[in-house]
Structure formats: structure tokens, C-alpha cells
Amino acid sequence: MSIFVIDDHPLMREAVVMLLRRLRASTQVVELERMASVSKAITEFGEPELVCLDLKLPDTNGVSGVREVRQMLPDTSLIVLSASPASDYEDLAREAGADAYVEKSAGAAQIAKVLKEFLTEEPEDENAPIIPEKLSKRQKQLLVMLDRGLSNRDIAEQLQISEHTVKVHLWRLFRRLNVKSRSQASHLARTAGLLDL
């Protein structure tokens, strides 16, 4: 899985990349300067697990970039890192589909804290999914919905919760099962009989 950092300011981009590498050394971080490069990057590197997006790019205006990323990557976590004050853009960015809004002036520690929330922890052994003895009722519901191929939006509507909450539940579930993707979670659920619980 990769992470896209989309920012036309080289120094800021490098700073975010350094933070991400410190949080998770093995992750491939893809640096992009403009929105026009995103679809090519998806073709080359696959869908990212996380996108860090600056609002002010040469080919975007306001929260248009957030909408574009959301259209291309409906299930990917999206953090806006902006020089603009949260009071100006946070609500608009969230309405357009951002999962979090962080001011660049917040400093490295605060930015790292937010990034960490959106990164799934790396399993110690990638080949050893864990079959937990007991899953919560919500986790069982999620596994059934994942197995049916529902998107985050569909799950959110069925459970009457926000898409962000669905993502948080899924990260916790993936961590619990020691898997990295929806398909791995579904496969484990089927092979371990977790859908019959």
C-alpha cells in the first residue's frame, strides 16, 4: 500500500514525507505536485491507503481538489494539510469529503498525531492473520457487509453512522484480524467461519 502526498511546495512535501517514513518506514510514499498527476499515480502504484492533500495547488481552487480525490478514491482516507486557517476551510473540506483538516502551522508533533490516527499498524508477521476468539457485534456486522462487497458509504447508510466512523471501525477490525485489506478480511472471515458466528 502507498500514501500520496499532494503538495506543490517542495519543502512542505518533504517534511510530510519524513514524518510518514518515521511513522511507517516500509510504506511507499508517492510525492505529487498537482491534481493532474493523481490518476496516473493510481494506475502506477494502485489505490493509496491515505492521501495528504494541500488545498492550494496549481490546478485546484478551494476544496475542488478534495472533491476530485473523493471521486477517484471514494474509500481512501483523505487528510487536508493546509496553510489556510481551519476556520476558513475545515467545514467546507469535510463537506467535500475530507476525513481530517490540519493546519500546516500546527507543527510536526500535531501533524504526526493526526497521520498516525489514519495509518493502520503494520502486522508483525504479514503471513499470520489472527483469528480472534471473540469479535464484537459491530465487527461481525462489518465482516458480513465486507463479504457482500458493500462500500464504506453503503455500510455507513445501513448502520446509520458516518463514513469516518466506518473507517475507524474497519481499521480496528483489520488490526484485530491482523489483515491489511477488505479482501483479506473477507477471505479470513470465510475460511475461519467468522460469518456464521
Can you tag this structure with a few keywords?
197 residues; alpha/beta; Rossmann fold; Arc Repressor Mutant, subunit A; five-stranded parallel sheet; 9 helices; 12% strand
Notes on the structure:
- This protein is α/β, with parallel strands linked by helices and 197 residues long.
- 49% of the residues lie in helices and 12% in strands.
- The chain has 2 domains: 2-118, Rossmann fold (3-Layer(aba) Sandwich), CATH 3.40.50.2300; 137-196, Orthogonal Bundle (Arc Repressor Mutant, subunit A), CATH 1.10.10.
- The chain is built from 9 helices and 5 strands, in the order βαβαβαβαβααααα.
- The protein has a 5-stranded parallel beta sheet, with helices on both faces.
- Helix 1 crosses helix 5 (108-118), helix 6 (137-147) crosses helix 9 and helix 7 crosses helix 8.
